[in-house]
From TrEMBL:
Taxonomic superkingdom: Bacteria
Name of the molecule in the record: SIR2 family protein
Pfam families, per database record: SIR2_2
Membrane-spanning parts: none
Gene3D superfamilies with a match to the protein in the record: Tetratricopeptide repeat domain, TPP-binding domain
Organism lineage string: Bacteria, Pseudomonadati, Pseudomonadota, Alphaproteobacteria, Hyphomicrobiales
Amino acid sequence: MDSSAVSPNGPVPVGIKDLTFQLKLAKSGHKGGEDERGPGAVFLVGAGCSQSAGIPMASQIAQELTLELASLKGALGSDLQSCQTALAWLDDRQHLPNLSTHLPGFDVSKPMWGRLYGYLFEEFFRSDNEQRSIIRDAIDRGQGRINWAHICLGEIVRCNYAHTIMTTNFDQLVLQGIILTGMIPVVADGLSALSRVVSRPNHPQVIHLHGSMHTYELRNSASDIHATQEALSMQGTIFGLKDSGLLVVVGYSGSEDGGVVTLLEKAFAAIPNLLVFWVLYEESIDALNHRVRAMLTGRNKFVILNQDADRFFGQLVRGLGFGAPNWMENPLSILDAVKDKIVEPTEPVTALAKKDFGAKLDRFRNAPTASPDDIILERATIDSLGGRDSNVIEGVSEEMAATDPDAARLRAISLGRLGNADKASSLLAASVAAWDAFFRSSGADDGKARTILAQTLLDLAEAPGNQNGEQSKEAFRQAMENFRAATQAISLNLARSDWIESALGFAESVAEQGDEGAAENDLTAAIEILDKVLTVLTGGPQSRQQLSAEERLGVLLYMRARRTKSESDYRRAIAILDDVSQRAVNHESWSVGVVRNLAVAFRGLAELIQDKSPDEATASYQRAAQLYQDSAEKYLGGLRDLDERDALQAAIWAYEEAEKLYRVLNESDAANAIGDELRKARTDLETRA
């Protein structure tokens, strides 16, 4: 990563390794050696970090309040079937006063529910007691559980990689995660308390930017959120970022129309060199609203894409050198620290209670020793979470894996990770063998184990020396079977699981083989898997992951159509790709690729039906030619992820295809016009050589 990189169109996508490097620098200070404390980092966490704990996000609360409001206003039956129908009912009857004033440009037919959250509190659910009740009910749905993201975040604080956690959430999960490490941070959850926040504290601090569940005055309504940006104490808190130099944003969309997002805009403008990593669940920066994209344009601004909060923090702590918090690895350590801090009581009975407490700890410590295999597995689990895969393989033998499914799983995962990192066929094959042992020993699987096995087989098929060989073909066939099995077994609750990412990767691998290389059953398997993927995606119609899955499905359908001469597959592919092309409007080569693929599908349909339906075939050829021409013009218009030379080459190819089709259609004027553009593009390319 070049930390001085500047993108005129938005932040630069990077990986988690880039962030771990910067966190290590922030901790060390990188000036006076390892003993010198650096400024550390500030984390800003939003609702996306709490969702896996069962706590609903603002958008979900807004949907629920919309249903409740419609019911209170008299809606019945079909009008309450969904939050969308309830919102439409309220709008039709003019029950949404001042909506356009509070939320300019808000589209009731395609609502951004997160924006509606503050408006509903502003106009309807106004009282502090009512707001507190709504928030408490939402938090109670989490049943007091804490997720892995907050457990890891607490350990990041304990290990001095971060000193301040700011949160827009009302729940106490950040606080709980830090307390579990044995530390009690300073908590600021009201505007008056923010005046006591220190920009570079010696003790960790948690800042609730919108108040917490225990605050007397919550900041939910639109006016309260806007008032936040005017509060001097809040401005001081945000502008204190300059003393840290590194901000990590996780699970926060910045979708509100004021408040924290406005303060961040001002801070980013005032501190242009502030190093920012914005972590997104989505696969594209287009998931960010335009204000956030604008503030992330410039020096030292980066995004990490496609990250569920739990998975992100799990990978982050692994990269920092620890996988599980110290209190999990040494559960008595916190209690020992508590005992040591208790002043020796002067009252005899109280002194006896302290003595008994110490004796109980000693009995736990001196309890019968676990079996050697159990100790190995406990150590291997911690090593696996910490990414110390060589230690796992050294400790967990093939013999252990043959009889213990937990041992087999640990060994298989570590062998697979090492094999993938080194592109080593032998390690990947050993991982496959360990997974076989896992299933032979009746290891429990909800589809996740088969997903990882399938991904390992796919890596094996694509490893150097295996491509196109018999081992590669067999590995790919087994991968297909395991993906299919995982698809049948996977739980709909695991919408954010690795299965989705692996399934999309599998479909991509099938598509990359082309319709000549991919077998018909592989194409069918990939289509079935993508159909299942599309039933569990949660990002919404504009989600890059949703669009990518649909686009891959369209491509696979027209590939199968060419093999099987299936008119229905062509028509379904065209319908899907046409829809995606309307929604995937951005300045990236991927979206232009959707247009090109749609052109391919139209041309394939035309070739198939030209004898029986010549008029429709002609229309399809014309649509394909126009789409090729459109894609060429988009390439020449400039794309943020493609340099000018590559864009010219892509445009030349698209123009060539358009010219061929216009010649087939005997449309000489159009063909000649395209020929002129083609010559200009070729000349331009030659001058850049």
